[in-house]
Amino acid sequence: MKIILKSVLVLWVIVLIVGFMLPKEYEVSRSIIINADVASVHAYSEDLELWQQWQPWQDADPTVKIELGPITRGVGASQAWRGEGGDGELLFTQVQPNKGIDYDVWFNGKQDQAKGFLTYRAISNEETEVTWTMTGAVQTPIFGGYLALMMDNMVGPSFQLGLFKLRSLIETGQV
Questions:
Q1: What is the span of the domain harbouring residue 141?
Q2: Which of 40, 54, 110, 124 could join 166 via S-S bond, C-beta 3.0 to 4.6 A?
Q3: What is the CATH number of the domain that holds 166?
């Protein structure tokens, strides 16, 4: 019994030490090619009212309620949400029609902050690569590094789903 107890204690100490040493920063990124020009992609990306049609969060949490801010397009556009999965806010900080959108996002009552980016790259006149990226740091003591390691697997599939929905809406002419 002592050996088992000592083994568990040693394992727990190792988990703690590794947790302190792991980087807390993360970056999640997904890309997709859309058969449309940059202007068409931007028309759907710059307006938070239109985000409701392609963002993946309602699929993940059907209880989520989204409240749009007084500005829904361009710099200063904002939205807030609340659901069983948590709450948050989003604010567009930079909007460049030929390049993309930068935004700040806060989770859990503004305890956690991240930066988001939707970037466009014209491949041809009728093809655009869209990349959705989020960067941040998990501030949770000890386990933050472990959470940062899992962010790609936790957020990446949602980004990919959102990009698939965006592509479908644009390519079927529902802009």
A1: 24-171
A2: 54
A3: 3.30.530.20
| Own/partner pairs, 106-109, CB within 8 angstroms, 24+ separation | none
Q: What are phi and psi of 38, to 5 degrees?
A: -60, -40
DSSP state of 125: T
Domain assignment of residue 74, yes or no: yes
Q: What is the domain count for the chain? A: 1
Mean per-residue pLDDT, 95-118: 92
- Contacts of 71 by beta carbon, 8 Å cutoff, 6+ apart: 77, 78
Percent of the chain at pLDDT > 90 equals 63
Which residue, among 24, 54, 18, 42, has the nearest Cα to 149 in the 3D structure?
Answer: 24
Dist. CA 128–CA 132, nearest whole Å: 13
CA distance 27 to 19: 18
User: Tens digits of per-residue pLDDT, 49-94?
Assistant: 999 999 988 887 888 899 999 999 999 999 999 988 889 999 999 9
